[in-house]
Amino acid sequence: MTDRPTILLVAPTFYDVSYSINPWMDPDAWARDPRGMHRHAMTSFQALRDALDASGFAVEVADGAPGQPDMVFPANAAVVLDGKAVLARFRYPQRRGEEAPFEAIFEGLRARGLIDSVVTLPEGCFQEGAGDCIWDVQRGHFWAGFGPRSSREAADAMSSHFGQEVVALELATAQSYHLDVCFCPLAGGEVLYYPPAFSEASLQVIRARVPAGLRIEASVDDLRHFSVNAVNLDDHVVMTSTTPHLRAELGQRGYRLHEVDLSPFMLSGGGAYCMTLRLDRSSMAARRAVAA
């Protein structure tokens, strides 16, 4: 056991880009040099692991399964809070094969005492993990994306399972198919987000809950760089190689950036947050943050 915050990665041993279920996926680019791309993916994965370690995380690495290339994105596998893991149900058939091997991974984590319980959602309730259900430690609630992948009723299911408030946000574009592509709460209370990704009603919800001084609006260039898809611990932010605009904005707010070349994974529509899953989130920590 460790006192460091614990984060899960899945090794990219079986990673490739062989199909397309979001606008970012580019199997043709992968097919032009699959061996070279895989070598690059392995190097990028190690760089991400090193950046997470340098940021203060204890890193758990699980094995993927043959034929399930997107297992390298465990953010989509489950939502974890207070030791309870609620497993995802995927909308697209290309990813449903991940459900059984991920369940085995989480049962293994439970057996080792890294989580306390593993719960499955009802059939037909599409919910794609922490990618669409993001815990905001400063506000003490989940933000849940719905539309392209997760269903609206999944937000209510998450609220029931965890006994926590869940604020549902409708995603309005195919490019922002998961909430984590376009929305990132930060430790200082800021929210980094890409406004065009959301319906007008959802933008009103964000603006009502997050003061203007704490809203950081990402540009379309930031979105293309997958820079909103970031991992934050205290003043550390791990993200893909980012834009001058965002580098300056976050630096001015006191954040230390760890930029990693994750271009092989961007070909599947994923960045640093997609490739990780926090296992130690606690609602008690959020209550302390709100009280402070």
- CATH-wise, what's the superfamily? L-arginine/glycine Amidinotransferase, Chain A
Number of strands: 15
Which spans of ≥5 residues are poorly predicted at pLDDT below 50? none
Strand content: 15-25%
On the 0 to 100 scale, the average pLDDT is: 96
Number of helices: 10
Brief summary of the model shown:
The chain is an alpha/beta fold. The protein contains ten helices and 15 strands.
What does this structure look like?
The chain has 292 residues and is an alpha/beta fold. The chain has one domain: 5-stranded Propeller (L-arginine/glycine Amidinotransferase, Chain A). It contains ten helices and 15 strands. The two termini are 28 Å apart. The model has no long low-confidence stretch (mean pLDDT 96).
List the helices and strands and how they pair.
Blueprint lengths: L5 E5 L16 H5 L2 H22 L2 E5 L15 E4 L2 E4 L5 H4 L2 H13 L5 E4 L12 E4 L4 E6 L5 H11 L3 E5 L12 E3 L5 E3 L6 H10 L5 E3 L2 H5 L6 E3 L2 E5 L3 H9 L3 E5 L2 H4 L10 E2 L4 H9 L1
Parallel strand pairs: 1-2, 4-5, 7-8, 10-11, 13-14
Antiparallel strand pairs: 1-15, 3-4, 6-7, 9-10, 12-13
Descriptors for this entry?
L-arginine/glycine Amidinotransferase, Chain A; 32% helix; globular; alpha/beta
